Amino acid sequence: MKLPIRQSRLHIRKTRPKYIVIHQTTCQYPAPDAKIDSPKFQVPALIGNVLEKKQADINYHFIIDKIKDDYQIITCKPFVTICEFPDISNDINDAAFHVAVMGSYDFKIPEIRLYEILAYRLLNPLLKAFHIIPTRIYLHYEVSDNKEETCPGSFFNKGKMISMIKRFIITK
Ligand SMILES: [Zn+2]
Fold first, then answer.
1. Which of 13, 41, 45, 152 is most solvent-facing, going by the fewest CB within 10 Å?
2. Total structural domains in the chain?
């Protein structure tokens, strides 16, 4: 199953990116084949949910998915466009990159390697290229109007993520 490319339905961002919001993919896509991250490439499992919701594209800019033995960063929605989250205020959402970890971390503890790849290949380069300060990285539930929101999962540890960001900081 392939998603049609409907660029005209995407909203181009007009604000300089200042925030990064971290999610788990089950916050929008409950596809059973992608509920727990596995060595399979699972992004295609989300496509049925994207079509059901009549979204113009996968509603995250990037997903980190474990494929065979290691984690890989996958680009989903073009990052010059805005992801649509009705529970996140426009001030933050219109200036955010949305990054999702595959699966649900309400059930599983993220591996250290997930935090390493996330920081090294994606978060640190975004911080550096767009001059974003690490205190502007939020977990979805921290910026949600919905008090019940747990995304990116109760086992996702922000402290570990921040320590990996410090470890792979790009100074030059
Ligand atoms: Zn989320």
1. 41
2. 1
- pLDDT tens across 106-152, in order? 989 999 999 999 999 999 999 999 999 999 999 999 999 999 999 99
Instruction: List the CATH number of the domain containing 112.
Output: 3.40.80.10
CA 172 to centroid of ligand 1, rounded, Å? 32
Whether residue 1 lies inside any domain: the answer is no
Residue 155 is predicted with a pLDDT of 97
56 Cα–ligand 1 center, Å? 18
Tell whether 172 is covered by a domain: no
Q: Is residue 3 part of a domain?
A: no
- 52 phi and psi angles, rounded to 5 deg: -55, -40
Distance between Cα 14 and ligand 1 center (Å): 22
Measured CA to CA in angstroms, residue 98 lies from 68, 158, 172 at distances of 24, 15, 26
List residues, by chain if needed, whose CB lies under 5 Å from ion ligand 1: 23, 27, 140, 151
Distance 150 CA to ligand 1 centre (A): 8
Q: In sequence order, which residues have a C-beta less than 8 Å from that of residue 95 and are 6 or more positions away?
A: 13, 15, 16, 17, 18, 19
**pTM of structure:** 0.97
